[in-house]
Amino acid sequence: MIKINEHYLKLQASYLFSNIAKKVGEFQKSNPDKEIIRLGIGDVTRALPQACTEAFHKAVDEMAADSSFRGYGPEQGYDFLREAIVKNDFQSRGADIAADEIFVSDGAKCDTGNIQELFTQDARIAIPDPVYPVYLDTNVMAGRTGNFEDGRYKGIVYLDATKENNYVPGLPEEKVDLIYMCFPNNPTGSTITKAELQTWVDYARENQALILFDAAYEAFIRDESLPKSIYEIEGAKEVAIEFRSFSKSAGFTGTRCAYTVVPKECTAYDARGGKQAIHPLWNRRHCTKFNGVSYPVQRAAEAVYSEAGKTQAKELVTGYLKNADLIASEIKNLGYDFVGGDNSPYIWIEAKRDSWEFFDMLLDKAGVVCTPGAGFGKCGEGYIRLSAFNSYANVEKAMARIKKALA
Ligand code: MLT
Question: Candidates 15, 17, 245: which one to mutate for ligand 1, based on the most atoms within 8 Å of Cβ?
């Protein structure tokens, strides 16, 4: 008799963003004339930078001729992209990362979800609350938690990110092995300073722990004193893996390209307490389960680092940040407390009521989709997230409608 993985039965009924899409679809069906503005899921709306589409087209043409056609590429990514990444994203900021420490992939969601399989079943996992749901759900699927009770899974060490700690969790009281972090944060939009991040790196070094650092939103950092990469922090290469994405920084959500950095010095321990490098293990996993990102997509990603690509990608991000500024100032005028929106595309708002109730009210009265904070964890109850990924005109319209709905 074939038996299912019982751990899947512990999961909440559906993935947060699928649940929201379903609700919005039903609402649209019963209100076909109502124009809906989506400030929910963090999905980009503006076209790819022109430099990227030009490189994309050119690479597709190469695929159309036998003489320049390419079949399977290197699983870890083409050298042209890995070299452009390290030069522009790390070495230019004083972080000493080498091209062969980069693993190109089709998304930070997959990488942050898959990385956990390298570690033991009994690893003590620390996960912030609220947080992007993938970190938690993938550990539930893998059987590292008990049941869901009172809004939380048994066996996880939750790191509360609340107004009291400025949405940056402090070190855990108990010893943990694997620590998920995300800055600029999804969903709160909060940022971490170099000094704060240093305390986490020091903790990981002292406790033989590993940090999984999701930096998918680094392109939104305007404050130059803030770290864009964990490798700007002393000692981080030994104890941290970093995840990056072209999705939000260059509009690649539908194109799919991201990368993970696994420094050669980064280690975990085997059953006898010996140090094992993580790099060859992730490489082994990548080669076995992944066949690389398509050649035209990698050429499009490489173009993000051309002079024109840099300017155009920056323009995209600046446009979304302008939306974020508008959302933040309108929310402030409405008298709501919030965080984020300055170095992040997300604005995390204290809703002063049940977060799903607020979601329903905004959809019904304003035709605006937000993300209910409760979907990101117990500490998200009472909050909603607004995303700046839309056109400025739509954001203006959405904020005018929200103002009316809350009046
Ligand atoms: C979000 O809205 O939190 C993100 O868009 C989800 C994702 O990047 O997968």
Answer: 17
Q: Is the Cβ–Cβ distance between 213 and 181 less than 8 Å?
A: yes
186 lines ligand 1 (CB under 6 A): yes
Beta bridge partner(s), residue 201 = none
**Residue ranges of domains in the chain, CATH in brackets:** 6-47+310-406 (3.90.1150.10), 53-307 (3.40.640.10)
Neighbours of 34 (CB within 10 A): 12
Q: Which residues contact 389 (CB under 8 A, 6 or more apart)?
A: 39, 42, 43, 44, 45, 248, 320, 323, 345
Predicted ipTM? 0.92
Count the neighbouring beta carbons within 10 Å of the beta carbon of residue 67. 5
CA dist 134 and 115 (Å) reads 11
Q: Is the CB of 105 under 6 A from ligand 1?
A: no
Nearest residue CA, atom 6 of ligand 1?
42
- Ligand 1 contact via 21 beta carbon (within 6 Å): no
pLDDT, tens only, 359-386: 999 999 999 999 999 999 999 999 999 9
CB-based burial label for 275 (10 Å; 0-12, 13-18, 19+): exposed
- Which atom of ligand 1 is closest in space to residue 109's alpha carbon? 9
By most ligand atoms within 8 Å of CB, the mutation choice from 105, 109, 186, 246 for ligand 1 is: 186
User: What is d(CA 374, CA 354) in angstroms, rounded to the nearest whole number?
Assistant: 8
Between the two ends of the chain, the Cα-to-Cα distance in Å is 59
pLDDT digits (tens, 9 = 90+) for 199-225: 999 999 999 999 999 999 999 999 999
